[in-house]
Amino acid sequence: MLTKENLIHTVTKITVLKENDECKIGTGFFYKYHANDRENYALASNRHIFENIKNALFSVPIEQNGQVNLLNNEIRIQPYLHPQYDVAVIGINDLIDSPEYVGKLKISWITKEDIITEDFPISAIEYALMIGYPLSFQSDNFVTPLIRSGVIATPLKSKFNGLERFLVDMECFSGSSGSPIFINRDSQYYLVGIEQSSYSYKEKEVGLGECENYNVLSSFLP
């Protein structure tokens, strides 16, 4: 269950070096699922963050000897990219299964049960949180993300421009890509989408973010 106490530990900052030697910063969220008779672990973000990577790093706070340190991890396997929407996922079982890190990593996992479905009750006005790293900004040395709030700007269950997308009334910057979007119900938080870009109308920035919705996530993630 996702609560206000553990929500900030669902994400990490991703630093990517592209094949053209361009450096990109994005946000990813931690995802857990059951398959092949075991728990499996992954990092989800945008396709445009993970595609054409030469190498990539992400960091996780770790408790060791009574102190919190930062563990930097290299992504060593190829991501799985959505064929249409701006979503990708990459496995991190090797990190999570490592005996030296078991029980020490400060991670909160998002699961399929945390993603809303079509029968989830939605009102005409929904307030949302976006958690990530706009402009690579973080609130301390342990990659604690920024929590931002706003209104879901288009009907959540309607297809924006005929696609499984919606807009949020939050400005989005480089580094926000891949940020999860949550709504609250009775002090429990649910994932409704993932930010993928700022939205322009008639070639002008209008302070809105464009997000892939819950249907994209629930159908794509294992």
What does this structure look like?
Helix content is 7%, strand content 46%. The protein has 3 helices and 13 strands, in the order E-E-E-H-E-E-E-E-H-E-E-E-E-E-E-H. It has helices at 47-50, 93-96, 214-220, and strands spanning 11-18, 23-35, 38-45, 53-64, 67-75, 80-81, 88-91, 127-132, 146-151, 165-168, 180-185, 188-201, 204-213. The radius of gyration is 17 Å and the shape is globular.
Measure the end-to-end span.
18 Å
Largest beta-sheet characterization: 7 strands, antiparallel
**Percentage of residues in DSSP E strands:** over 45%
For the biggest β-sheet, the strand order reads 5-4-1-2-3-7-6
**Number of β-strand runs:** 13
Q: Which structural class should the secondary elements be placed in?
A: mainly beta
Helix residue percentage = under 10%
State the shape. Answer: globular
Low-confidence blocks of residues = none
Order of helices and strands: EEEHEEEEHEEEEEEH
Radius of gyration: 17 Å
Mean pLDDT, all residues: 93
- How many helices? 3
Summarize the structure in short.
The protein has 222 residues and is mainly beta. It has helices at residues 47-50, 93-96, 214-220, and strands spanning 11-18, 23-35, 38-45, 53-64, 67-75, 80-81, 88-91, 127-132, 146-151, 165-168, 180-185, 188-201, 204-213. The strands form two sheets. It has a seven-stranded antiparallel β-sheet. The protein has a six-stranded antiparallel β-sheet with strand order 9-8-11-12-13-10.
